[in-house]
Amino acid sequence: MEIETEKILEKYPPNKKEDLLPILQEMQKEHGFLTDEILEKVSLYLSLPINKIYAVAAFYDQFRNSPGGKYHIQICRGTACHIYGSSTLLKELEKQLKVKAGGSSRDRKFSLEVVNCIGACDHGPVIKVNEQYHCRVNPEALNRIIRSLKEKTD
Questions:
Q1: Are 109 and 71 in contact (CB under 8 A)?
Q2: Residue 65 falls within a domain, yes or no?
Q3: Domain holding 136: CATH number?
Q4: 59, 79, 106 — which closes off a domain?
Q5: How far apart are CA 93 and CA 87, in angstroms?
Q6: What is the average per-residue pLDDT within 4-17?
């Protein structure tokens, strides 16, 4: 993990604070989540206080501080998605995956996260599985998505 972290940091000039978000995004993509060790290295590299790094990582929904499942499912709970029924979808996801929002299934196949807004308000309700967006999801579509993920053996 340390070699990959160093390679990412080497892409950016030291002490350039405006590179914080791209660095954290690359770290998240490479490692799957942001450990305390990663955040401390970024803090030292950019000469930013560690509490600022933690604040940024906590503010943005895209960052996780624990490993997610193989299939990381995000469900939008923004106003538009709420109006279109995302609360029903959330309950169904928790039931089918046997995991509460913010957690991961025991087999680490699924993790479930509630996000404030995915940014596709006119396509709600929206869920995102890893990097794939599913728009205008209704209970039947949700069942197909979950069944498809459960059937994958890769």
A1: yes
A2: no
A3: 3.40.30.10
A4: 59
A5: 10
A6: 92
Which of 120, 151, 150, 149 is closest to 137 using CA atoms? 120
User: What are the helix (H) ranges across 32-138?
Assistant: 36-46, 50-59, 79-83, 86-97
Contacts of 121 (CB under 8 A, 6+ apart): 78, 79, 80, 81
Structure confidence by residue, pLDDT tens digits, 28-64: 888 888 999 999 999 999 999 999 999 999 888 778 8
Domain identity same for 78 and 46 = no
Structural domain that includes position 138: 71-151
Q: Is the pTM of this model over 0.70?
A: no
Q: What angle do CA 29, 33, 36 make, to 5 degrees?
A: 130
Structure tokens of 135? Answer: 């728009």
pLDDT tops 80 at residue 130: yes
Q: What is the pLDDT of residue 153?
A: 54
User: Is the same domain home to 52 and 77?
Assistant: no
Report the CATH number that the domain containing residue 32 is assigned in CATH. Answer: 1.10.10
Give Dmax (Cα) for the chain.
50
Q: Total structural domains in the chain?
A: 2
Whether residue 86 is predicted with pLDDT greater than 90 in this model: the reply is yes
